[in-house]
Design a protein that fits this description.
Blueprint: E1 18-21, H1 23-32, H2 36-44, H3 53-65, E2 69-76, E3 79-85, E4 91-95
Parallel strand pairs: 1-4
Antiparallel strand pairs: 2-3, 3-4
């Protein structure tokens, strides 16, 4: 079990539910020796990564309206991961775009 303690400066932007990682994203992260929690933490803090301004605004609005949150991170030149928090905040999934 992983416990993350937050102070006011690291308080999450929203509830994120259970954290899930797909097989493809897990294999990519393991192969590149990248800790997925680095990207999860960015998502948790509202750093939406490599998305356009329109999608960034959609996420900001979703924090108020309760819609889905999505981050995109380029982990290497031609590989990216998505992190999606469902609208009901029950689960946050780290996945590859092709696994969507």
């Amino acid at each position: 079990m992983i416990v993350i303690n937050f102070d006011e400066s690291t308080k999450p932007m929203s509830e994120l539910g259970a954290l899930v990682i797909t097989k493809g994203a897990d294999a990519l992260m393991r192969g590149l020796k990248i800790n997925p929690f680095f990207y999860f933490y960015r998502h948790l803090q509202g750093d939406w990564g490599d998305i356009c301004d329109e999608d960034r605004q959609t996420n900001e609005d979703a924090l108020i309206s309760g819609n889905r949150l999505m981050s995109v991170y380029n982990v290497i030149a031609e590989e990216r991961i998505w992190i999606i928090t469902e609208a009901d905040r029950s689960v946050t999934t780290i996945l590859l775009p092709e696994e969507y």
